[in-house]
Amino acid sequence: MSGITLTNVTKVYTEADVTTKALDNLSLSVEPGEFVAIIGPSGSGKSTFLSIAGALLQPRLKVMIDGEDIATLSEKKLSYARLSKIGFILQTSNLLPYLTVIDQLLVVKKMSGKITPEDREFAKELLTDIGLGEKMNKYPHQLSGGERQRTAIARSFMNDPKIILADEPTASLDTKRAHEVVSLIAKEVKARKKAAVMVTHDERMLRYCDRVYRIEDGILTQES
Ligand code: ADP
Ligand code: MG
Question: Bridge partners of 68?
Answer without folding.
Answer: 65
